[in-house]
Amino acid sequence: MAVEPDRHEPFRITDSGWFWATAFSLMALVGIGLIGPKFDVRQRQIEGRFLGRQQAAIERSRRAAGLPPVDLAEQARDRAAAQPGRIVPLWTLAAAASLAVVGSAAMLWRECRRAAQPMIDRRRET
Fold first, then answer.
1. Tell me: the pLDDT tens digits for 33-56?
2. What pLDDT, in 10s, does the model give residues 1-27?
3. Arithmetic mean of pLDDT, 85-101
4. Is the pTM of this model over 0.85?
5. How far out from the chain centre does Cα 40 lie?
6. Cα-based angle 64, 70, 74 (whole degrees, multiple of 5)
7. Which of 18, 46, 112, 125 is a plausible cystine mate for 107, CB 3.0–4.6 Å?
8. Chain centroid to CA 111: how far?
C-alpha cells in the first residue's frame, strides 16, 4: 500500500477572519474620513443642545434654592464658553479603527506566513 503525499489545501486569503477584519476596519477609516466634516457640524449642534439643557438645569436648581436668577441668554453670547472643544471627538473613533487595521493586518500577515511555510518545506524536500 503506497503512502499518498500530504495534500494541503492552498491558503485562500478570503477564508481568513483577519482579512475581513482588516477590510472592514479600512472601510471604517474611509467612512470616518468621508463623514468628518458633516460629523463636526452635527456634533456641534448636538453638544450645543446638551450644554444648553445642562445650563438650564443648573439655573432651575439655582432658582429652586432661592438664589438670584442668571440670564442664560447673556452667557450664550460668549461663543468660546458656549462651544468648547468637542465632548466626543472623531479622532478617538479613527484611532480605534487604525489600531484595528494594524492589529488585524499583522495577524493576517502572520497567518499567511504560517500557511506558506508548509509549501516552502515541501519544496525543499523535493
1. 999 989 988 988 888 888 889 888
2. 455 555 567 778 888 999 999 999 999
3. 90
4. no
5. 15
6. 150
7. 18
8. 24
The cell for 73 is 441668554
C-alpha cell at position 84: 468648547
Name the residue type at position 62.
R
| Count, residues in the chain | 126
Cα separation, 120 vs 126, whole angstroms: 10
Query: Quick one: cell of 80?
Result: 468660546
HEC string of 86-112 equals CCCCHHHHHHHHHHHHHHHHHHHHHHH
> What is the model's pLDDT at position 97?
96
One-letter amino acid at 23 equals A
Q: What are phi and psi of 5, to 5 degrees?
A: -65, 150
